[in-house]
Amino acid sequence: MTFSKAELQPKTGWPEARADRLDDAELSRRSAAILAIYVANPVHRGPFEAMDRLRAQTAGRRGTRQYAIRVTGSSGAGKSTLAKTFVKKVTARGHHADGERPAVYVDLEQACTVKRMWSSILHAYHDGFADEGSVESLRKRAVDAILRSGTSLLLVDEVQHLFYRSKDGLAATDAFKRLLDAGVTSLALLGDEEGRRLLESNVQLVNRMVTPADIRRLDPASDADLDLLGEFLKRFDAAMVAAKLHDRPAGLHDPRLVNILMEVGGGVIGAMINVIREASDHAHLRAAERIEPFDLARAIDGWSDGQNRGAANPFRRA
């Protein structure tokens, strides 16, 4: 079931973008507004609950050997969003003493050395001297910060950046093992598919891990996954209207659009949102009341095909 040629024609606004819609302030507002939209990703629920179980187990037996959990996924899977949301929600529960931080998020920079890893952890704890000191002094201060803050789960994002040199990968693995064996905190190790392969390759670290909680891709052959995606898109659509991005909802939960976005995004919701974002801008620049199939088709022509995400635009399929 596809869209007819008539359905792919614009129904509101102009057929093309107009220069008088290029208002810098409004475009900036729209960009910030769509980035601020948060709709719970249905495939994040399992990893969230798995991390929460590990955090709770750690809090109940602090000082004894702890464990790590692997949370990896493809680009666009929403790993960082999941981790940051986890920290916010766990903290908002208020089940900790004043001054404690039960979960802390650490974002590793590219080509990260072990020294920079400890510095990144100290930055996450707002240490004013996070970049000063030897590897060992940084490690000790980071451990002190973790213990002092009562952190039961340290979420370390972009772990693949630690493995750009083999010696740093080995040193990072040893650093993780020392934290776990000393009972300092449990770890959630987040990264892309390369990070997954690297973590899997270290048997000693694997032996200190609980069952992985990787973020899966949605399956286009699964009716249940199509339903999950349809509900997500319906809520995202409503959120765009609430954010005054469009006057009317686009009807993104139309089964035909659900199937097309599933195909174009390869089952990764983040990639689908990128297409919707481009379509939203296109609809705005031609003063349309809502995102229309016309805008989505143009977005796939431009963004998706331009990024080599797919061999053909499903809207153009005969």
What features would you describe in this structure?
This protein has 318 residues and is of the alpha/beta class. It is built from 12 helices and 4 strands, in the order ααβαβααβαβαααααα. It has helices at residues 24-36, 45-60, 79-92, 114-124, 135-148, 166-181, 193-200, 203-206, 223-242, 255-265, 269-285, 293-306; strands spanning 68-72, 103-107, 153-157, 186-191. Helix 6 (166-181) links the parallel strand 3 and strand 4 (186-191).
Question: Mind telling me the C-alpha Rg?
Answer: 22 Å
Strand content: 5-15%
Task: Decide which structural class fits the backbone.
Answer: alpha/beta
Q: Topology as H/E string?
A: HHEHEHHEHEHHHHHH
Coarse shape: elongated
The major sheet is characterized as: 4 strands, parallel
Task: Specify the number of helices.
Answer: 12
Distance between the termini: 10 Å
Which regions contain 5 or more consecutive residues with pLDDT less than 50?
none
**What does the average pLDDT come to?**
92
Tally of DSSP β-strands: 4
User: If strands are numbered along the chain, what order do they take across the biggest sheet?
Assistant: 1-4-3-2
